């Protein structure tokens, strides 16, 4: 199974909207996402899951459109910034070859957790950074990080 984890593109600064969840991608953020989406061409994606936050939704839709991906984006609360990586993995037990579109600190924490288990420092992932993990099955601390690509 493969798992791709994508951090949203560059977003408006904090304080630009009343709620963090409403921050939108900048023009640069949209360009970052499109550059990163090119790394997913030809990959065996079965689903795209995204945080409900505006910048993650915009990121997911840009990727979906760039790939010509047919299935609808699945919006889930468990991809918001401060969600627990252990609870995220519980949601992934019955899926394969999916793209997760989320935020830091969850992205960095989740990548570290899936590779090493609990207690390790988070991976560093820039905006629109795309990580690819692989394993025969989803096992905490046992997935192999194939790459992290930054735009």
UniProtKB/TrEMBL annotation:
<dbReference type="Pfam" id="PF00300">
    <property type="entry name" value="His_Phos_1"/>
</dbReference>
<dbReference type="InterPro" id="IPR029033">
    <property type="entry name" value="His_PPase_superfam"/>
</dbReference>
<dbReference type="InterPro" id="IPR013078">
    <property type="entry name" value="His_Pase_superF_clade-1"/>
</dbReference>
<feature type="region of interest" description="Disordered">
    <location>
        <begin position="1"/>
        <end position="25"/>
    </location>
</feature>
<feature type="compositionally biased region" description="Basic and acidic residues">
    <location>
        <begin position="7"/>
        <end position="25"/>
    </location>
</feature>
<dbReference type="InterPro" id="IPR004449">
    <property type="entry name" value="SixA"/>
</dbReference>
<protein>
    <submittedName>
        <fullName>Phosphohistidine phosphatase SixA</fullName>
    </submittedName>
</protein>
């Amino acid at each position: 199974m493969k798992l791709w984890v994508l951090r949203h593109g560059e977003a408006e600064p904090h304080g630009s909207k009343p709620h963090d969840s409403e921050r939108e991608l900048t023009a640069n953020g949209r360009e970052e996402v499109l550059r990163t989406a090119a790394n997913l061409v030809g990959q065996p994606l079965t689903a795209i899951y995204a945080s409900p936050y505006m910048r993650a939704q915009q990121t997911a839709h840009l990727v979906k459109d760039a790939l010509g991906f047919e299935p609808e984006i699945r919006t889930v609360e468990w991809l918001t910034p401060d969600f627990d990586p252990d609870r995220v993995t519980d949601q992934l037990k019955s899926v394969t070859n999916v793209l997760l579109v989320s935020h830091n600190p969850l992205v960095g924490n989740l990548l570290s957790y899936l590779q090493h288990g609990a207690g390790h420092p988070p991976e560093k992932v820039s905006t629109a950074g795309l990580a690819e993990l692989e394993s025969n099955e989803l096992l905490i601390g046992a997935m192999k990080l194939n790459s992290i690509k930054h735009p």
